[in-house]
Write a structure and sequence with these properties.
It contains 11 helices and 15 strands. The chain has about 375 residues and is of the alpha/beta class. Strand 9 (about 235), helix 8 and strand 10 form a beta-alpha-beta unit.
Length: about 375
């Protein structure tokens, strides 16, 4: 199969222009390189398969790392000028909540990140996991398998961690548990020794880590220095393979993660995806992870919506959204209420890799 770079198809005026909105620096910049490659691979494969509505897909990279209002102005300006036909990408919820009203349903917006839930803006289609189906069953599993009852929450100070912490407060009584403490720090925090001491003082059985990228790395290193892994577990709905590598083997003991995709997931679809990625980019390519794979998934979802609707306009996509399904690295998935209905797994860190332990039950 010819997997030509979609960026090179730049002379075709009929191309479907997709703004790829991903972080290129800052705390979340650790995800950027693999997100870019996965989106490019998806675009190339879609184009080999005839494109979207007969139009080749062309990506336009936009950095999601800046202040959310500035990112929203840039994306809004591209939409105003007719320079992009859709927006796809992984970025923090603070960016999403700025971008969605700025583009106001004028082009489809496929948001691929796990998030706090509740997004209903017209034209926003969500790939990522939400707390009901990701966090609650994981908390229940930790209670059942490891006796976890007392929780501390450590998160960055913006909408996703705070919204997820609110969900955790609701879920704790369902798991015979309690939230003993909550600490929120600015994005870009590098010093966590005081936070780790506070966790130790609260005698938590587990920490719910709601930290982004490099911030999670710094927390894990501080956690290891304090030797807390012997008495306290960690659960994250975001931590992924690049974060494990950067944290170091000593920093990952006792970490659990939940996601719809792990590089180590052994299903026919995920294994095939990993093999194609390795063939295309080589052994030295950035490590596959859930944020990156979500960008691939987001491109597939955009194509499936457009093909089902036989149009790219938001009203047409909204009419058919709940009838859309497709097969990808996460297996067969379906749209329901603007969100992807999918399997979610729990994995435990094994030094610098994840071992998938179980598929989590779907909570109503």
């Amino acid at each position: 199969m010819n997997r030509a770079d979609p960026q090179r198809q730049s002379s075709d005026a009929s191309a479907l222009e997709v703004g790829l909105l991903i972080p290129l620096h800052g705390s979340a910049g650790i995800y950027g390189p693999s997100c870019k490659l996965c989106a490019e691979m998806a675009a190339a494969e879609i184009n080999v398969d005839g494109g979207v509505l007969g139009r080749p897909v062309r990506l336009r990279l936009v950095d999601a790392s800046g202040p959310p209002p500035a990112v929203a102005r840039e994306i809004g300006g591209l939409v105003d000028a007719g320079a992009i036909d859709a927006v796809v990408g992984w970025h923090i919820s603070a960016v999403r909540t700025a971008v969605a009203p700025r583009i106001a349903g004028r082009v489809p917006y496929v948001y691929t990140a796990l998030y706090e839930g509740g997004e209903r803006s017209p034209g926003v289609f969500v790939v990522g996991e939400t707390p009901t189906h990701q966090l609650l069953p994981a908390m229940q599993w930790l209670r059942r398998e490891h006796g976890v009852r007392r929780w501390s929450i450590v998160g960055n100070d913006y909408v996703w961690p705070r919204g997820t912490a609110a969900a955790a407060r609701r879920f704790a009584p369902l798991c015979d548990g309690e939230i003993r403490d909550e600490v929120f720090v600015p994005l870009g925090t590098s010093g966590f020794d005081a936070v780790v001491r506070r966790v130790a003082e609260r005698r938590a059985d587990a920490v719910l880590m709601l930290l982004v990228g490099q911030d999670a790395v710094e927390f894990n290193r501080a956690f290891a220095r304090a030797g807390l892994h012997d008495s306290c577990r960690r659960l994250s709905t975001l931590i992924e393979e690049n974060t494990l590598l950067a944290s170091g083997a000593d920093g990952t003991l006792g970490i659990c993660a939940t996601a719809a995709y792990f590089e180590s997931l052994v299903t026919p679809e995920s294994l095939d995806f990993g093999a194609r990625y390795a063939r295309r980019y080589g052994a030295d390519a950035p490590t596959l992870n859930s944020p990156a794979e979500s960008c691939y998934e987001g491109m597939l979802l955009l194509a499936a919506l457009a093909r089902r609707a036989r149009a790219i306009g938001v009203p047409a996509l909204r009419r058919v959204a709940d009838s859309v399904s497709y097969g990808g690295p996460r297996g067969e998935v379906h749209m329901r209420d603007q969100h992807l209905d999918q399997r979610v797994y729990l994995a435990e860190a094994d030094a610098l890799d994840f071992a998938v332990v179980t598929e989590l039950p779907r909570c109503a």
